[in-house]
TrEMBL record:
Keyword vocabulary terms for this entry: Membrane, Transmembrane, Transmembrane helix
Highest taxon of source: Bacteria
Molecular functions (GO terms): cadmium ion transmembrane transporter activity; manganese ion transmembrane transporter activity
Protein name as catalogued: Membrane protein
Alphabetical list of Pfam families matching this protein: Nramp
Transmembrane segments: 21-41, 47-71, 91-112, 124-145, 157-174, 194-215, 236-261, 281-309, 321-338, 344-367, 379-402
Keyword field contains GTP-binding: no
An annotated GO BP: iron ion transmembrane transport
UniProt keyword Cytoplasm, yes or no: no
Bilayer disposition of the protein: Multi-pass membrane protein
Organism: Virgibacillus pantothenticus
Assigned GO CC terms: plasma membrane
Subcellular location per the Swiss-Prot or TrEMBL entry: Membrane
Phylogenetic placement of the source organism: Bacteria, Bacillati, Bacillota, Bacilli, Bacillales
Length: 410
């Protein structure tokens, strides 16, 4: 080997490690920012109003359940080297198609809400008409997928947006002076426990397409196999940690406002919190966070939904970026000309509650099939904890679906 090649080798290794770290962080933030959408902001605010400091316990339990779900899914995707729908089809022929249909329908429906949230974010930030704001946001998201290395661009966008959201949220939380001592006590000894809140948070954080967002990103980047499991596990936990920091910061901000005896406007609870905490500039800050949360959810929903149909056709695999762009265009057009189709959102929302138990249950079956994982031994504690999540989310998902179906026909 020539001296020149010897000199280049450490540089190449260093570059590979740097790229690997970037992808791992990108996957973590893709999963986290996909879950931090307009619904995340509203749910956290409303539940904090209802449960006050006791919501700290709900956040803790939901984060633990999120970790159990994500580690299971990411590890088996890495071990098998297959996407979620491919794993499901090998467990039971046709199951992957059903899962893909649910994911794509759910992703499309909720992307309409994400586009709407992006429009509202620009309205609060800059005073733009929400429809115009939604169209500008859609163009921004589309541009990401027109870049030659779209995946790398997506990684950077979600990381930057994620850091901006966290910093702004921590600033607002600091300004409201929340009762931290009361929060610490209620984290382990809550005055009130809401199972409904726990399930809602878990479904919103790792439900639907979000379950597979990070795992599919790592797979597309070539990070797979048993040797990479420590990195994959670390990336999945990082994603949940980012979501947790954001959730805790918003919770503290809302709690600080409530503890001061201030009244939150029910028409737009999150925006009201920011305005009460920091004044008129707080409303602008809310716009920045709402837009960042919505646009990253638009990108995450489109990317992950299309990743579920890529393996079904060589044509889709070849032109997946353009199909992702089409996905965003359909979402934006629907919102622009129809608005948010309430009945579809309600129905798909109810079906979305069943995606996590179906997907995770399938993953757990695959984890114990030798033809799927070879010599890999899935940890018993992950199988047990994952099964608990499946049972809890499955039972409550069915109840939710039964409750919501009559609303469709009203």
């Amino acid at each position: 080997m020539s001296p020149q090649k010897k000199k280049q080798k450490p540089e190449q290794i260093s570059q590979e490690k740097k790229t690997s770290r970037s992808v791992l962080l990108g996957a973590a933030f893709l999963m986290a920012t996909s879950s931090i959408g307009p619904g995340f902001l509203t749910q956290t605010t409303v539940f904090t109003q209802q449960l006050a400091a006791s919501f700290a316990f709900v956040i803790l339990i939901s984060l633990l359940l999120d970790v159990f779900a994500q580690i299971n899914v990411w590890r088996i995707i890495a071990v098998t080297g297959l996407r979620g729908q491919e794993i499901a089809n090998k467990v039971l022929p046709g199951l992957g198609v059903i899962l893909a249909i649910l994911i794509v329908l759910g992703g499309l429906a909720f992307n309409i809400g994400n586009i709407a949230g992006a429009g509202l974010g620009l309205n609060a930030m800059l005073g733009l008409n929400p429809i115009h704001g939604a169209m500008i946001s859609a163009i921004f998201a589309i541009l990401i997928f027109t870049i030659k290395e779209a995946s790398k661009a997506m990684d950077k966008v979600v990381q930057i947006a994620g850091f901006i959201m966290i910093l702004l949220m921590l600033y607002v939380a600091f300004k409201t002076f929340p009762p931290v001592g009361e929060v610490i006590i209620n984290t382990v000894k809550p005055e009130e426990i809401s199972i409904y809140a726990i399930i809602t948070l878990v479904g919103g954080t790792v439900g639907g397409y979000i379950t597979f967002a990070g795992g599919h990103r790592l797979l597309d980047a070539g990070i797979k196999g048993k040797n990479n499991l420590p990195l994959v596990t670390k990336s999945s936990i990082t994603g949940i940690a980012v979501t947790g920091v954001m959730r805790v910061a918003l919770f503290l901000a809302v709690l600080g406002v409530i503890s001061q005896g201030l009244t939150i406007n029910p028409t737009n609870p999150p925006a009201s919190v920011f305005q009460l905490a920091v004044g008129d500039i707080g409303y602008r800050l809310f716009g920045v966070i709402m837009w960042a949360a919505a646009i990253t959810s638009v990108v995450g929903a489109a990317y992950t939904s299309v990743s579920f149909i890529r393996s079904f056709s060589p044509f889709i695999e070849k032109y997946h970026n353009w199909i992702t762009i089409l996905f965003i265009i359909i979402s934006t057009t629907t919102f622009t000309f129809i608005g948010e189709p309430v009945q579809m959102l309600v129905l798909v929302g109810a079906l979305n509650a069943l995606i996590l138990p179906l997907a995770l249950g399938t993953i757990l079956v695959a984890a114990n099939m030798k033809k799927m994982v070879g010599t890999y031994k899935h940890p018993v504690w992950l199988t047990v904890t994952g099964s608990i999540v499946v049972i809890m989310m499955g039972f409550l998902g069915i109840i939710t679906l039964i409750e919501q179906i009559p609303l469709i026909f009203q």
